[in-house]
Amino acid sequence: AQSVTQPDIHITVSEGASLELRCNYSYGATPYLFWYVQSPGQGLQLLLKYFSGDTLVQGIKGFEAEFKRSQSSFNLRKPSVHWSDAAEYFCAVGRRGNQFYFGTGTSLTVIP
Amino acid sequence: DGGITQSPKYLFRKEGQNVTLSCEQNLNHDAMYWYRQDPGQGLRLIYYSQIVNDFQKGDIAEGYSVSREKKESFPLTVTSAQKNPTAFYLCASSITGGDDYGYTFGSGTRLTVV
Fold first, then answer.
1. pLDDT digits 0-9 by tens, B59-98
2. B48 CB near a chain A CB, below 8 Å?
3. Do B99 and A51 touch (CB under 8 A)?
4. Residue B35: in which H helix or E strand, if any?
5. Which among B90, B101, B107 has CB closest to A96?
6. For B23, how many CA atoms within 13 A lie in the half-sphere containing its CB?
7. B54-69 burial, b for 16+ CB within 10 Å, e for fewer?
């Protein structure tokens, strides 16, 4: 069965510190992989996506993610967190023509 | 600018009433989706449509209905059969081919039963 696991419900980091949000998935084939960000009361904005090729992908707002096939993971990273990065982050997997599966989200708090 | 418009942003419903949430896109996307978001549960798929006049049930379709008469529009009706409709509803769209694949989301409708 297809599923996405984000094991960290909530993470708190200090401004300027590095960040890593974890995402593990279960899927029948190599899926397309996505990270989205959601501010309170808003829709989801695409941060980055992986289809194929280089396993390290760059996204908007200074985020990057690395696909590790052997670990079925697609962790999101940022070298230095800004206060404006506080939001909810969702990992998603899917294939063209099929529905996406979303994780339950990781809420990020940034402290000054 | 192209995008997805959901309306209204806030909606209040009395128990036993049907309500319809609007979703319009001007991205020329073929596929459209409705998700329900509850705290701690992520996004759950209600219905999706890949072409006009065709749609499929998602994981939690009971108590909901949709139509897709136009490519641009995918309204969701929350019927009185939905026992716990209070939630945040998100509409999304995507192309079905090409490299620019991924979901574009609307800003959501928060439905509250009063």
1. 999 999 999 999 999 999 999 888 899 999 999 998 876 5
2. yes
3. yes
4. strand B31-38
5. B101
6. 32
7. ebeebeebeebbbebe
